[in-house]
Specification:
heterodimer; A: about 120 residues; six-stranded mixed β-sheet; four-stranded antiparallel β-sheet; B: mainly beta; 11 strands
């Protein structure tokens, strides 16, 4: 597609429910990132996928968070047993890949605004 | 651990003024520094990317400089317009292959 696409744009759910957030990166981009933007913490890195390599999960805040990337394209971020502190905007970004990371910016989607009641 | 600081947190200027936004970072081992713009309810739009070997980049009325040794970058906006009102974010990209962001400068340009 023309840009990074995220769905849903907004999600309201009750505490304790599981949620899935989807990211469709720019076609041909091998690198995919998830970030979280919350009022108290600013923008934080969550996870990084590069091609078929094992993802860098170092930013995931707890084991309730997981992500997968199928076929090197679409990614899903799953939050289990949601808590109120999970309320934030979840942003996805993609870039061409490590060979060009030094001179190519990351392209961001519009995010999913998650509200936990 | 890399830390990025942006000053000021908020800025309000009349239309037509030139302005400077500041960014500092603690670890100079970076691949590049990026400036983004974020409008309310939207994602981030890349404005300028400066590679670690470069000193500055220009795009239209925007000019960004990088002094890697001192851990500083500035974003200069010339002849500001109301449409420039947004939050401006600075981020550095390093060997960890993730962007580390500052907390942003919220800019308001008054007509």
């Amino acid at each position: 597609g023309a840009g990074v696409s995220q769905s849903p744009s907004n999600k309201v759910t009750e505490k304790g429910k599981d949620v899935e957030l989807r990211c469709d990166p720019i076609s041909g981009h091998t690198a995919l990132y998830w970030y979280r933007q919350s009022l108290g913490q600013g923008l934080e890195f969550l996870i990084y996928f590069q091609g078929n390599s094992a993802p860098d999960k170092s930013g995931l805040p707890s084991d309730r968070f997981s992500a997968e990337r199928t076929g090197g394209s679409v990614s899903t971020l799953t939050i289990q047993r949601t808590q109120q502190e999970d309320s934030a905007v979840y942003l996805c970004a993609s870039s061409p890949g490590p060979d060009r990371d030094s001179n190519q910016p990351q392209h961001f989607g519009d995010g999913t605004r998650l509200s936990i009641l | 651990k890399q830390e990025v600081t942006q000053i000021p947190a908020a800025l309000s200027v009349p239309e037509g003024e030139n302005l400077v936004l500041n960014c500092s970072f603690t670890d100079s081992a970076i691949y590049n520094l990026q400036w983004f713009r974020q409008d309310p309810g939207k994602g981030l739009t890349s404005l300028l990317l400066i590679q670690s070997s470069q000193r500055e980049q220009t795009s239209g009325r925007l000019n960004a400089s990088l002094d890697k040794s001192s851990g500083r970058s500035t974003l200069y906006i010339a002849a500001s317009q109301p449409g420039d009102s947004a939050t401006y974010l600075c981020a550095v990209f390093g060997s960890a292959r993730q962007l580390t962001f500052g907390s942003g400068t919220q800019l308001t340009v008054l007509p």
